[in-house]
Design goal:
Helix content is 66%, strand content 0%. It contains seven helices and no strands. The longest helix has 26 residues, at 57-82. It is globular.
């Protein structure tokens, strides 16, 4: 299989598989030569005010569940297509993580958005307990998504604390 990072799908990939890869990569964000997770998180922050945050709270929850399920299935397929476990170019999990971190805030300020980005990246990279352990709790794409859910919960907890003391 062709594991080269490119907008061109690997040989023999169907149109549906190409759509899966574009979805998992958040378009070109996952194809960044360095730190694709950071670029995916930045893309999530940029999309949130237009796609996610205008939704009422119940629709935000529904959106997060839908992204978890579709992202898990798509990430599983991307692993097969790319021939690697948890490929770095799969960044749909970063979108889910950032949006979970931002979910409780109706109209977050630029400071809250920046803090959500930094805190999520910190916990996604450092992987405190149980983030690292969770990567193996569920198979394939579900494990890819779950560790970012838990990193987002750590980030949300810290963000809430920072907000409660007036730092953001």
């Amino acid at each position: 299989m062709n594991s080269r990072k490119s907008l061109t799908p690997p040989n023999g990939v169907s149109m549906l598989d190409n759509i899966v890869l574009v979805f998992c990569r958040l378009g070109p964000a996952g194809l960044a030569p360095r730190a694709p997770g950071t670029w995916g998180s930045l893309a999530a922050c940029l999309l949130a005010p237009f796609v996610f945050l205008p939704q009422p709270p119940i629709w935000r929850i529904f959106t997060l569940i839908l992204i978890f399920v579709l992202g898990s299935l798509a990430a599983s397929r991307a692993e097969q297509l790319l021939g690697r476990k948890d490929p770095g170019e799969v960044v749909i999990d970063e979108l889910l993580g950032v949006w979970i971190t931002l979910a409780p805030f109706e109209k977050p300020s630029v400071m809250i958005m920046a803090a959500a980005f930094v805190l999520f990246r910190l916990f996604d990279i450092c992987k405190p307990w149980p983030v690292r352990a969770s990567e193996n709790w569920l198979p394939s794409g579900f494990g890819i998504m779950l560790d970012d859910v838990l990193a987002a919960l750590w980030a949300l907890l810290c963000l809430g604390g920072l907000r409660s003391v007036g730092l953001v």
